[in-house]
């Protein structure tokens, strides 16, 4: 006798949902949003009406699938999709803590889930979506959650599971788990902007000016009275005293002249010379003095213009000392704490000076270093470039190390396969005479040379008939031909696997001339702030600093002799 087969007591589980079933599910949920999620909009739908709506959604899904789905299954599947999608958003925005798996890429269905949630009140007004990553869910940690609610400062606000906050409310777009960090809770809100009574400030300013004017008139009147009384009673004693003062001043002047002569002899004897060009450079700095009086000091992107203006009233350092501190930081690469100790100011004050002066130098030096015209380049063309009479610019790229960001997206964009490190990449162009004529903004180390040309304004600066010299990495011949320009690069090896004699000569000649752009970049990297890894706090200022470094090197002796 044959025994019957064993039958499992557990019910057979239905297979997973197909992409088609999930798409129909999202479409039906969007259509029936009011009966399904009426409680989010204050409609007060009953339980039976909501269950009937889910059954209608399940019927529509069953028509395109193989198995019959129930309303309870449809609701559970939508809840699972929603949780997975929102979790991936938080994972992609979560700061790196030193371990953990890499965030998974979103499936094709998950962006549609986020789009279907845009109508909920907790997501209205936000740039939602997995790709943007511009929102943060409220933390589960009780202490951190309370800190966020206090910072929002909204009456009777109780966040739910769908509540999010935009990244614009955080200083750097992300939040930290450290309670002592400034990014532990959101800090940027409109209610924190202080209203300024401009009329009251104008009245106070007018009263102060009137008071200073009256005091100056009183001092002038007293000085006039003293001079008159002195001239009436001093008589010949005044003249004798004046001659005595002149003779007393003559002795120090003689000592100063002797010191100057001694310095000249020391320069001639032991070879110590600061150079006439350096003297002229420091004399030219005086033209910045009037601009310093109108300078508005940087206090962060979240401060108002009035707050930055008021910060000029009490400066611990004179403008010339601020300039000296900025140049020391750029050239020597000292730490901010060290510089603050040297000049007797706080770390925050020194950072404020440094940022403000870098912005001022960038603005002023940019006007002094425009992209030269073709006539100017041809008049100053060195004899070694006679084989390339139409050459306008020589291009090369350079990279500087930066700290690794906690964001996986930023790490991916800034990691350089050439340097095996996170870097910032700059495009530098020099004229045939060796002057740095073009400096790009900083790009992530992953960007290619061709992409940098496309994203900068270099193609708009060159003209038809110009020549561009670069190395083999610049595959931009088609881009230059559209402008009517020529590209001078070393020739590529032909199918014969051997260079011809002419190709060898061309390679040697181009390599001999293009080395000058590397020499120019080498001058820039003599600023020792490049020696280490650039801090993430300086990355927003890096493009301005690099441009200032390049333009200051143009004040040095000529790179190429005529």
TrEMBL record:
One of its GO terms (molecular function) is zinc ion binding. It comes from the Eukaryota. Keywords: DNA-binding, Metal-binding, Zinc, Zinc-finger. Its cofactor is a divalent metal cation. Signal peptide: none annotated. PANTHER family: SI:CH211-262I1.5-RELATED, THAP DOMAIN PROTEIN. This is THAP domain-containing protein 2. It comes from Magallana gigas.
